[in-house]
Amino acid sequence: MDSLAFLDKARRMEPRAVYAVTGDEAFLKRHVLELLRSIVLGTEGADLGLSTVPGDKATWAAVHDELETLPFLSPRRMVVVDGADPFVTRERARLEKYFAAPSASGVLVLEVQTWPSNTRLAKMLDDKATIKCESLRMSRLPQWCRSWCTAQYEKDLAPAAAALLVDLVGEDMGQLDQELAKLALYAGAAPQIEAADVDTLVGNSRTENTWKIFDLIGAGQQAEALTLLDRFFEQREDPHRLLGAFSHQLRGIVRAARLNGLGTPLSEAISRAGIPPFGARAAETQMRHLGRERVDRLLDWLLQIDLGLKGSSQLPARTLLERLVIQLAQAAEPARARSH
Fold first, then answer.
1. In this structure, is residue 180 part of a structural domain?
2. Which residues contact 285 (CB under 8 A, 6 or more apart)?
3. Cβ atoms within 10 A of the Cβ of 231, count?
4. 230 and 165 in one domain?
5. Average confidence (pLDDT) over 56-71
6. Do 63 and 94 contact (CB within 8 A), yes or no?
7. Could you tell me which of 116, 110, 99, 14 has the C-alpha nearest to residue 58?
8. Domain end call among 147, 169, 201
């Protein structure tokens, strides 16, 4: 079962004797384990009924004894084997026997990175007992932010705000949750969090500031744009967040260019692409400066830099972003964007 579906439906399910909590997303695992603890142990005496052991040190005898020990001041006992991959490897045969005849008073939770579905052990657990905590694709994160913000913080997150937040923060769901918590407080009595709130609180007006770089890029002022980028680094701006702000703006230009290419008047295309009013004129200038060929390559360039910042390149982050500014600011053929 997908972890998001589990978090939504688990309170209506009966506890299972064994769970496998799998995947690479620590934020989702933490919330799944917290919810399991509440469902299995309730609120009274939960601490007395919970045991957590590291998988590299856990022994079968100790884990089994905990599972068979009668609960005290809680309906059941819950034993979590944290980082259980080595434990599963060592004790696979015993686990298979246990899965077939588990304790009546204990719940075993195996927190693992991998859980191959073709193994006998995995086949012994049904879908509702196998909870997959996998990172969401970038394209799914804005909608997740909106749903999570409503469920956890009782605030509506505007679509543009969600998109900007993901651009600025990136794929780390735990960090996104932290920023949503701060945004909910910042919004106060307002029922909705807007893109301006995200830019002010999370981006520290980074989006508007990066428009200044793109103003220089649109004018072909390469040296001045690089000087402004250097200033950001001198102020210890995080390279990933700088790329997020760059990405937010450049993806808007790509969307506007595609709409324009399908016949939408340029001014309308820019508005529909989500580019803020203060940047509309600059966006038109930038599109004309870049030209169709470079606009079509923007998403590939952004992906290459994102991968580079995550370790695929040995170049410093500063160099990667400087190269992007140079690619964008250098002279190009006349743009083919259509205006109506």
1. yes
2. 215, 218, 219
3. 12
4. no
5. 90
6. no
7. 110
8. 201
256 and 192 both lie in a single domain: no
* This model's pTM is above 0.90: no
Least confident of 1-15, 64-78, 189-203, 300-314: 64-78
Cα atoms in the 13 Å half-sphere on the side-chain side of 111: 24
Answer yes or no: is pLDDT of 42 > 90. Answer: no
Q: How confident is the model at residue 235 (pLDDT cuts 50, 70, 90)?
A: confident
Clarify whether residues 12 and 123 are in a common domain. yes
Same domain, 109 and 12: yes
Q: Quick one: three-class SS letters along the chain?
A: CEHHHHHHHHHHCCCCCEEEEECCCHHHHHHHHHHHHHHHHCCCCHHHHEEEEECCCCCHHHHHHHHHCCCCCCCCEEEEEECCHHHHHHCHHHHHHHHHCCCCCEEEEEECCCCCCCCHHHHCCCHHHEEECCCCCHHHHHHHHHHHHHHHHCCEECHHHHHHHHHHHCCCHHHHHHHHHHHHHHHCCCCEECHHHHHHHCCCCHHHHHHHHHHHHHCCCHHHHHHHHHHHHHCCCCHHHHHHHHHHHHHHHHHHHHHHHCCCCHHHHHHHCCCCHHHHHHHHHHHHHHHHHHHHHHHHHHHHHHHHHHHHCCCCHHHHHHHHHHHHHCCCCCCCCCCC
Answer for the pair 107, 125: CB distance below 8 angstroms, yes or no.
no
CATH code assigned at 34: 3.40.50.300
Tokens of 117: 């579905």
pLDDT of residue 12 exceeding 70, the answer is yes
| The Cα angle at residue 142 between residues 127 and 139, in degrees rounded to 5 | 70
Residue 337 is assigned to a structural domain of this protein: no
CA–CA dist 213, 221 (Å, integer)? 9
Q: What is the mean pLDDT of the chain?
A: 88
